[in-house]
Design brief:
This protein is an alpha/beta fold. Helices cover 44% and strands 21% of the residues. The protein has a single domain (4-133), classed as Rossmann fold. Strand 1 (4-8), helix 1 and strand 2 (29-33) form a beta-alpha-beta unit.
């Protein structure tokens, strides 16, 4: 089964890096977007194995108001149709306590600090999340 990873990221270099990592190391198909509407459309179509969600989406809006990755994650987890899709937050907020706070506030399944320096660890985290959800 080919895994499909949905990367919601507004920084083009981070998005490109994540796409390459998932395609080359996991053989996954990858959709990259910074649009909440496109994210929800793709999730609604089914088949998403993992969402990697940027916490600080600078220009993103949903239903006419600005949203960040924490709020988008809460919306994903609140919908019974998408609640089981694992979500990994990706953020530059990497001070002590940030991971725990962001996970608690969002309901996300995991967290990775940017920049992503340890690609093998990142892929391992992603694989564990997808295996648990399968």
């Amino acid at each position: 089964m080919i895994r499909h990873v949905l990367v919601v990221e507004d920084d083009p270099s981070n998005a490109t890096l994540m796409r390459k990592i998932f395609e080359k190391r996991l053989g996954a198909s990858v959709t990259v977007t910074d649009s909440p509407a496109e994210m929800f459309e793709r999730l609604g179509a089914g088949g998403v194995s993992l969402v990697v969600l940027d916490v600080s989406l600078g220009q993103s809006t949903w239903e006419g108001r600005p949203v960040d990755g924490l709020e988008l994650c809460r919306l994903i987890k609140a919908d019974p149709a998408t609640a089981g899709v694992p979500v990994m937050l990706a953020t530059a907020h990497a001070m002590r306590g940030d991971a725990e706070r962001l996970l608690a506030e969002s309901g996300a399944d995991d967290y990775v600090a940017k920049p992503i320096l340890d690609h093998a660890q990142f892929v391992g985290q992603a694989q564990r999340l997808m295996e648990r959800a399968a």
